[in-house]
Backbone:
């Protein structure tokens, strides 16, 4: 990895500064897929090894880096740019699945979705990121399966699985999880009052939350 300047944002802990600087460079493509990132590579930031180690560990837990025993960290081979391109595709397919499903929804279906959303809130309260991601996936899977198109539901499952590391990043923040929970409730409320257009618009919007967060928070200007 070549030595480069690492501009740090202000008014954050050192660990947070390092985290955001490295994450931004990964998102922007400044660190190419397959690039190794070691603690010593980040020393030009002018901070000690401890905040660097904390930042790299956090990036690995959120899927932005891979931890390689005795070798440091590496940017995953699948670029974030390629993964981000999947979001408009998934959102469009979610919208199609929603159109197929809404006319078939029963009060029992709505109750099942609301129960999943309640479990998502419980996972948020205990900071179980993996459970949050799994429950969000379950919420959307129930909708796509209710549409009755098995091939579409399977395709969505495959595409969602490819987005796992970005979704783990999204659900690692409580306020973002709360936004998903709130939008899920708004979707269910729209279904119950028969507002099909609003339910579909919210469903499409909900699937784009991670994409918008990454684009907004990954910007070097932030």
Residues:
């Amino acid at each position: 990895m070549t030595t480069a300047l690492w501009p740090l944002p202000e008014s954050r802990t050192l660990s947070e500064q390092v985290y955001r600087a490295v994450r931004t460079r990964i998102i922007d493509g400044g660190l190419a897929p397959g690039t190794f990132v070691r603690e010593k590579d980040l020393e030009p930031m002018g901070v000690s090894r401890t905040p660097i180690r904390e930042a790299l560990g956090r990036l690995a837990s959120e899927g932005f880096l891979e931890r390689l025993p005795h070798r440091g960290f590496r940017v995953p081979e699948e670029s974030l740019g390629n993964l981000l391109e999947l979001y408009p595709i998934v959102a469009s397919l979610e919208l199609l699945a929603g159109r197929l499903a809404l006319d078939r929804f029963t009060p029992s279906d709505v109750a099942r979705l609301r129960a999943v959303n309640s479990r998502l809130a419980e996972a948020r309260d205990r900071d179980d990121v993996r459970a949050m991601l799994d429950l969000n996936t379950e919420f959307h899977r129930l909708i796509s399966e209710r549409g009755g198109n098995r091939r579409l539901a399977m395709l969505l499952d495959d595409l969602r699985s490819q987005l796992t590391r970005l979704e783990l990043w999204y659900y690692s923040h409580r306020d973002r999880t709360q936004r998903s929970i709130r939008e899920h409730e708004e979707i269910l409320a729209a279904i119950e009052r028969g507002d099909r257009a609003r339910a579909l618009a919210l469903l499409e919007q909900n699937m784009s939350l991670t994409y918008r967060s990454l684009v907004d928070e990954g910007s070097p200007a932030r």
